[in-house]
Amino acid sequence: MTTAPTTAPAQGTGEIQDAGHVDVLIVGAGVSGIGAAHHLRDQLPDRTFVILDAQDNRGGTWWTHRYPGVRSDSDLFTYGYRFKPWRGPSIAAGEEILAYLDEVIDEDDLGPHIRYQHRVTTANWSTADRRWTVEATRGDTGQRLRYTASFLWMCQGYYNHAKPYRPRWEGMDRFQGLILHPQRWPEDLDLTGKRVVVIGSGATAATLIPAIAGEAEHVTMLQRSPSYYLARPATDELAVTLRALDVPDEWTHEILRRQHMAQTHQVARMSAEAPGELHTFLIESMRPLLPEGFDIDKHFTPRYRPWQQRIAVTPDGDLFAALRAGQASIVTDTIEAFTSEGIKVSSGEVIPADIIVSATGFNLSVFGDVAFTVDGEPVDFTEHVTWRGIMISGVPNMAYVFGYFRHSWTLRVDLVSDLVIRLMANMRDNGATMVVPALRPEDEDMPLRPWSDPADFNPGYVMRSQHILFKQGDREPWTHLLEHQEERDILPKADLGDGTLAYR
Fold this sequence. Notes:
With 504 residues, this protein is an alpha/beta fold. It contains 13 helices and 23 strands. The strands form six sheets. Strands 1, 2, 3, 4, 5, 6, 17, 18 and 21 form a nine-stranded mixed beta sheet that branches. A five-stranded parallel beta sheet has the order 7-16-8-9-12. Strands 13-14-15 form a three-stranded antiparallel beta sheet, with no helix packed on it.
């Protein structure tokens, strides 16, 4: 249970109101926050906690993104939690994922602990008091609330849900149609008979285009440069076989998780050890799915090696089916300007459009853009380094969840939660009320590296945000963005007494 009361609606901002104290304050009610809360209840049931989320409902990215066709880009056997079997198709729609999260919330009785429309604005640590003071503003009433917590767990995700990335192009004000972003998709939008241009070639474009191709008059994917795609079955044949044999759901879930982890590991390993072979495999797997004579070199051959950016999944090859049917087409060029009737590209061609969708990515957000202080001093995260991708040097009693890029995000939610709770238990057993990552003397002069090595992973949303992100070092435990096959061995065995964590 929690000692933070359920706050009653109140009008106006007024003075800040005390909202109570909890052992653990979790920010975010998406996949990460719900998973963290489950593990906390399961492994440390005596801890009180509350979950604050700025949105008006659960789900994080699955609540933000409700455009047509929104679905997972990972298999759900690994995207689902290890503790709750996934019973649906391998690639699932956003609504199915929300229903799965609802089941977790109900089964764990997390609902009374969640405060929706509570946007955290500041987090202030006091060493003297050994606690965080967290201020939040209610989106429905404007009321300001003050929580205190012994431990802060940031599970808010990594991008700005309220402000999507919106590039500006010349002439946008001249366009007579509708310009929109997938994060702000109108519920009542009718595409019947409309010519739609989708700017972008990533996972969002690959998801949206097949979903609307049958309704719109025509859909054009306008890309500056191509991405890699992989057609995968929406339904896993092995799952169908095991379920037909009445194999228990828990067994099926574990078998399929291991299968998909092994497959993803193989692709990730190939991207590092044999990128040319993986490139050839991906290109040749697309070739028979495309219309005869399609210019695959121009439209589907990226400038980067596989997995320097995400490989977009197309369930049952639905994107290629839309191209074969003539419902969709691809233009690979740069935008010169918007016109009143569409988009003019550098070749001089004008692509006619009634609706333009800017599927151009999102803006990264550092810990939800919360203003942090430690003992009255503002925290500039660009001057700090990560501890195992879980804590930040010099910031006490604060952990965060950041998932995988190449494997399913949720695999890391489970691993990180285990370590964070092991850390809390270690503090309890040793009578410590404070823990903070601190560089050892031998680490103080180590070279600092950017948040993401561009040679390893360099999508636009990361490269645009490197300057606001914290750093990593050149040695353990001051690194992050490792692969799952490494961390599944490293994190459970991580030494919490190796001198990189200071307990008080």
